[in-house]
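Why do we bother with holo predictions? Because pocket geometry can differ from the apo form. Keep that in mind while you read this record for nicotinamide-adenine-dinucleotide.
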Amino acid sequence: MNDPYRQAAEALKHLQPAVAVTGAGISVESGIPHFRGQGGIWDKYPPEEYATIEAWNDYPDKVWAFWMELMETLWDCEPNPAHYALAELEQMGLLQGVITQNVDNLHQQAGSKSVIEYHGNARYLVADKFGHRILLDPEIHSGDTAPRSFDGTPMKPDIVFFGEPIPSEAVVGAARLAEGCKAMVVVGTSAQVYPAAGMPVLAHQNGAFIIEANVEQTDFTRTITHAFLEGPAGTTLPKLVETIKAL
Ligand code: NAD
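The structure, written out:
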């Protein structure tokens, strides 16, 4: 039985609980570019200048202007069939949750209920030094300079900048899911950004069946993946759901 869809479908049906780990690739078909490689965002905006916590602390308004440019892309984006496929798997009782590296909120918009955001959510702002979050409102907050909280502190987009720790509840929640799962679906991630990239490795060490969906092979494909679904996730994940339904 070499059909990877059949193998992946059998695994999801019989090896529970299962979880998904998603990266920038799942949102490419929603119109959000991924960051790495030729034509990626980091080519135009070097991350050390625009995406580190030091940059934010030193010149928040310059960093803010960059993120607002990104937000112009994010606002109008809609979930694509890959996001809906994961939401449907959760509804079918075959997915315990999604651990995402993305900050675009598209899993929630597609209907996924259990979402762990490893790198935060760009639709929110950290409003004060106590860490309270407020919804970013383009009508109010889209000026050229970062909005200030009551004490004058610039309100930071609720995303994890380079040099910042991952929120502890995300680390703990994701590790719990990754350690305990018997199958994991890894979608659109290059396997390069740690610690998030450690989750599939952790799941594999604990004996989980690894399903990977990507347009190209990654370090995971060559080392830990059991079933590789090659192609755009907006095509491969709905096909996986259909295969499960046909079992
Ligand atoms: P990455 O940019 O390093 O890798 C993207 C991966 O997606 C690659 O392996 C690529 O082959 C694959 N891919 C591209 N198009 C695809 C498609 N249609 N279907 C399936 N796979 C596809 O992404 P990463 O590993 O997630 O790391 C980048 C970091 O930047 C993340 O941690 C994330 O926080 C952040 N980021 C977020 C967004 C977002 O919120 N949408 C977008 C860009 C970057």
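The two ends are 14 Å apart (CA to CA).
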